[in-house]
Amino acid sequence: MPFNEIFGINAFGDAVMRDRLPKAIYNELKDVQTGCRELTVSCAEVVANAMKDWAIEKGATHYCHWFQPMTGLTAEKHDSFISPTSDGRAILEFSGKELLQGEPDASSFPSGGLRATFEARGYTAWDVTSPAYLSEEGNCKSLVIPTAFVGYHGEALDKKTPLLRSMQAVSTQALRVVRALGNTSSRRVIPSVGPEQEYFLVDEQYYNRRQDLFLTGRTVFGALPPKGQEMDDHYFGKIPARVSAFMTDVNEELWKLGIPAKTQHNEAAPNQFEIAPIYNISNVATDQNHIIMLTLKKIARRHGMVCLLHEKPFRGVNGSGKHNNWSLATDDGINLLNPGKTPDSNLQFLVFVSAVLDAVDTWAPLLRLSAANTGNDHRLGANEAPPAIISIFLGEQLSHIFEGIATGKPVPSQEGLQLELGVNTLPKLPQDISDRNRTSPFALTGNKFEFRMVPSSDSIAGPNFVLNTAVAEVLSAFADKLEKASSIPDAVREIVTETWKKHGRIVFNGNGYTGDWIAEAERRGLPNLKTSVDAWPHFADEDSVALFTKHKVFNRGEIHARLEIVLEKYSKQINIEAGVAYEMAVQEILPACSAYGATLAAQIRELEAAGMNVSSLRTRLGDITHLSEEAAKIADTLSAARLAARHISDPLEHARSCRDLVCTAMEALRAPIDRLEKILPKNAWPMPTYEDLLFRM
Ligand code: ADP
Ligand code: MG
Q1: Which tens digit of pLDDT belongs to each residue from 40-82?
Q2: Which of 265, 279, 323 gets mutated to test ligand 1 (max ligand atoms within 8 A of its CB)?
Q3: What is the pTM of this model?
Q4: Is the separation of the CB atoms in 455 and 376 below 8 Å?
Q5: 528 pairs with which residues across the strands?
Q6: Residue 562 lies in a domain
């Protein structure tokens, strides 16, 4: 089948609905999707029936409500369509109620105390805006229905519910602003998101022999081979044939699901790659990003490889992130962050960029914590990722325009600049309004902002509900001003001026990877929350609680529950990593070292008896003995720190102890072990090395 014809064949998308639903029901559903009407059971009944027929024709036996609990992963529970009849046969059924609502129980998911297991009712509710699809696992096919997951009293137990709430909040406030600016036609404002997903591929045979990789997703030991990524020979390089075959299968599977996978390339580290789909509305983009992560993992196995989504699988080469491209557009297609040709006089652009400057500066700790996870602690501030300081790249021209308005010396836009390439046969290229800045955590790139701090393995719901809510808050203040203004251009000038004076400090167009910037950011008073454990507690700050409750994204209880969950998750992960490091050291590496040490000692005795000079062999044996003893001692310290941490009941104190004592001991253990790896003969080392994992495919 030509590849454009497979697009969407496994999704119950708009085209299928138009074909299969009566016109009145289709129109009703469209109204529900745009929030103009409430969903009725009778409408759901007809849709459920059409979905069931469609899925069964495609070989599905089950349906499932698919949701995103606070583990950051996805969850599913499958029910068959089978319904027994009184005469001992069976019919296939799927009711409107079953489409609308599920009760998966699912009480074992973390709830941060929002639900006790004895009152464990939890519900899933159909997200009408995200298309249902057909999943194929082996020969089992299921109709998958994207849902939100909430508790008995409607508390959000997942990542989708707050995201949907935040989309509503930002739409409400943004619409007030565009109305005040004279737009009478748009009915909604929708945040759009295009996430770029980075990942590593390693050969399955090596992966299976690394306890750290298969239990934690990262290597806790490993010395770099003589070559790393310094030659820049992997970045955008020729995609290896084996990986290309894998990417082809990934694309085919995603296209069938109606996910517009668009861009793929080699990334900076060896065996690191990226995939990006075309952007979508933010909840659908979030669902699709989950499907992309699941698909990468599934298809990699088919090709004898394993896909690593961890933020820092290997020390010494780049880690993986997820660039969250974000914008706001009206339902009739106006991108509110589009600078146009003359941004200096584009009031809408000036207001919305001002809103982002204010939101990102005021709520920097929230954005920082939305990108915090255990893996990202190894990545942020290392030399391949932005530091943990939030700043915005606007580019020179736009910065001058803002500055000019604020200081009353307006700078006109430079229209129609063209690049002179100095070669007659090359086309003249139009120059973009701003250059790019690879070091900025939050960069304006054309008509969207790119939040580049987001971790590769996590759901993008968190960064997006923070962004949407923070921007909604600023827009509501702007709308208050604009709605009362007698002159809109004057009011916009005032907004830009005030924003620039108060929040201009968030703009930094220079190199964010340098030490100078860290010092400069401190002078500007920008927070530098270095680790996740530093960042997370700000979620429950009073102003944060006020923000989220005002926009009905969370209530206080939901915030505290979430905070407890991330802290506990962190401590559990560190505990697992530490356990793995201990076992690998004590049960694999140190025994290999002493076995080799014994062989070496015997060899030395023999050579000495024969009158040979053995001084360099003796030095090597001494190093091995000394480093092994050091490692054994640190392993004991690690084990003690791990046990001690487990006895701390307060979640924040527990997490701090994991960070300060357990992680520190784990780091310390790595030093002698990585040195031992470089001393032992390659065939005496008991596990695959970085050379195998990064360079053999
Ligand atoms: P870049 O090279 O600027 O990173 P791309 O066009 O490849 O450019 O964009 C990266 C991601 O940004 C893609 O997923 C793309 O669909 C997405 N994107 C483009 N425009 C928007 C927008 N208006 N809102 C959200 N995401 C967008
Ligand atoms: Mg990009």
Answers
A1: 999 999 999 999 999 999 999 999 999 999 888 899 989 999 9
A2: 279
A3: 0.96
A4: yes
A5: 389
A6: no
